[in-house]
Design a protein that fits this description.
Length: about 110
């Protein structure tokens, strides 16, 4: 890679970080463990609901395949869980890339 390419990529990364910070940070409150807890709880509850539905489906099994309705209910729970995991991961990435202001408990 040429020096010019490296410089362009460095400037591109700086621009991306500044733009994302400006756009995202202005729309969200400063993050801390207190306001992150409900997000983590939401994901955990969706995981619980999805796994619970699977276990209940297995317990009800009489040797036949699940009905389309049962699969539909399980699928809806998976989609909810997957979407919440994706959103939480996007938030984690935004924090890792310094797109958001954060406050740790040590600085509170």
């Amino acid at each position: 890679m040429t020096i010019d390419s490296n410089r362009l990529l460095l400037e591109f990364e700086k621009l991306r970080r500044e733009t994302n910070f400006s756009v995202i940070n202005s729309a969200l409150p400063e993050l801390n463990l207190t306001n992150l807890q409900p997000i983590i709880t939401l994901v955990a509850e969706a995981r619980r609901d999805y796994l619970k539905a699977l276990v209940e489906l297995a317990e009800q099994n009489t040797g036949d395949q699940p009905t389309l309705e049962q699969i539909g209910e399980l699928k809806a729970k998976r989609e909810t869980f997957d979407e919440l995991v994706s959103a939480a991961n996007a938030l984690e990435t935004a924090i890792q890339r310094d797109y958001l202001k954060v406050r740790t408990s040590r600085h509170a």
